[in-house]
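sry for the spam today, last one i promise. struct tokens for design, 304 residues
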């Protein structure tokens, strides 16, 4: 069997300033105990995990030229192939305030670039070529200004025509339209996102549109709906330092497991272990000190 490859799409990446503030309170002077600056965006986070697992991984999307260096250095260090379209302007930046005492994160996101029609044309031309060279395509995150809500649906259609499977992790109308396209293999909403996009629906009913629904329930675990039924996975006890990137790592772990040939139940456990490892460290990727393997046997998967 040929070695499978993953292309991770991040149309609206960000530079994340992570600040650790124990007992963070609004309308008060807060003292930070630490901080760092990382390349971010759901697809960048996911690609960092799949590359760490040894899977041939590339990233694409849009990057602002003016502050791209942090991304370029990360891609080199993580052995990720850079296929981004570079455009004028700055990639958006955001502040993530993590309170380790209460285990909550507050996001403050700034605006970034607006995609121009010529940028979209360049991206589509590049994506059509890339899609034919990859087996799985991860379509993740929000859409930047300038792109229509059906853009992920459009990309999934291109991927399907090229023989690639796609996984979509977004929200709202872009998620609904992607699922309704019939070209998506997997969607990964959380409980809020699935209700926002589809209303009060039984996730199993979405299997008429997509092959799999991977539903994240945070500390309550996760569910996988697929043709053979529904699987539920528990969450291992873990001392989390941040939840930033946990869902992205969860998706990356699941798709990586499928690439490795694991069945659906094992893939769900592998995804949960990957997310557990991620929350024990700051920045993208999985922990060296608490690797996924240290959590795998603690996760219970059962068929409902």
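last one done:
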């Amino acid at each position: 069997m040929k070695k499978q490859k993953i292309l991770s799409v991040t149309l609206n990446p960000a530079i994340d300033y992570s600040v650790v503030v124990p007992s963070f309170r609004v309308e008060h002077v807060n003292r930070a105990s630490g901080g760092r600056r990382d390349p971010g965006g759901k697809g960048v986070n996911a690609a960092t995990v799949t590359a760490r697992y040894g899977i041939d991984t590339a990233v694409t999307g849009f990057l602002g030229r003016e502050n791209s260096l942090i991304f370029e250095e990360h891609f080199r260090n993580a052995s990720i192939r850079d296929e981004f379209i570079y455009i004028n302007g700055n990639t958006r930046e955001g502040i993530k305030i993590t309170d380790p005492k209460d285990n909550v994160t507050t996001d403050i996101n700034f605006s970034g670039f607006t995609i121009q029609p010529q940028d979209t044309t360049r991206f589509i031309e590049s994506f059509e070529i890339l899609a034919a060279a990859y087996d799985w395509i991860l379509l993740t995150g929000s859409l930047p200004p300038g792109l229509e809500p059906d853009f992920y649906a459009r990309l999934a259609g291109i991927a399907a025509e090229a023989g690639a499977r796609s996984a979509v992790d977004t929200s709202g109308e872009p998620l609904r339209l992607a699922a309704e396209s019939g070209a998506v293999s997997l969607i990964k909403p959380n409980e809020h996102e699935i209700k926002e996009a589809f209303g009060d629906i039984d996730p199993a009913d979405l299997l008429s549109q997509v092959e799999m629904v991977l539903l994240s329930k945070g500390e309550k675990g996760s569910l996988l709906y697929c043709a053979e039924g529904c699987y539920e996975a528990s969450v291992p006890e873990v001392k989390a330092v941040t939840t930033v990137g946990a869902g992205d790592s969860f998706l990356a772990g699941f798709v990586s497991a499928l690439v490795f040939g694991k069945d659906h139940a094992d893939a769900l456990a592998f995804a949960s272990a990957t997310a557990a490892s991620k929350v024990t460290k700051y920045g993208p990727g999985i922990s060296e000190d608490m690797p996924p393997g240290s959590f795998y046997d603690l996760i219970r998967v059962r068929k409902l």
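The chain has a mean pLDDT of 93. ok im logging off now
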